[in-house]
Amino acid sequence: MEMPITPSYAVPCHRAMAKLRRTAGLTQSEVAERLGVSSRTISAWERGETSPRVVQVLGYLEAVGSDFGELATVMQGERPLNASELTAGELREVVGAVKVAFTAQIVRQDRDLADLEARLGRILWEAEVPPS
């Protein structure tokens, strides 16, 4: 039996990020400009196609006027909290949960890529095309 990689959240991290941005009344382009990245990058993060590094998440949250506490709360499907209301231990717990969520997303993407490569290999083998 496979163990779950991450706790179950009501809202995936990438969707919670998009919700915080929309709540702040900002467009993807505005956030991208503040972070010095393309709007395509922000779009890919918010669709869960790519995962930002933790430092990029911090910048994103700052750009939308939010923090890890609010992100984690939105992921749990509750009213956003103010990080200043959290103890240091609770804040470390939230940061850890966000890291786990992003790691799990990356692992899923790696598995999807490995599955795609395996399928492509089978197609090439069946077609008797030597792999490059």
Explain what this protein looks like in three dimensions.
The chain is an all-alpha fold and 132 residues long. The protein has one domain: lambda repressor-like DNA-binding domains (434 Repressor (Amino-terminal Domain)), CATH 1.10.260.40. The protein contains 6 helices and no strands. It has helices at 13-23, 28-35, 39-47, 54-63, 68-76, 88-126. Helix 1 (13-23) packs across helix 5 (68-76) and helix 2 (28-35) packs across helix 3. The longest helix has 39 residues, at 88-126. It is elongated, with a radius of gyration of 18 Å. The two termini are 36 Å apart. Residues 1-8 have low confidence and may be disordered.
Note the main attributes of this structure.
434 Repressor (Amino-terminal Domain); 0% strand; mainly alpha
Question: Helix and strand string, N-terminal first?
Answer: HHHHHH
User: Mind telling me the CATH superfamily name?
Assistant: lambda repressor-like DNA-binding domains
| Share in β-strands | under 5%
Rounded average pLDDT: 78
Distance between the termini: 36 Å
Count helical runs: 6
Structural class: mainly alpha
Low-confidence sequence ranges: 1-8
* Strand segment tally: 0
Helix content: 55-70%
Name the CATH architecture. Answer: Orthogonal Bundle
> What form results from the Cα inertia axes?
elongated
Quickly count the domains: 1
- Rg calc: 18 Å
CATH topology: 434 Repressor (Amino-terminal Domain)
Q: Let me know the largest β-sheet.
A: none
Tell me, what is the CATH class?
Answer: Mainly Alpha
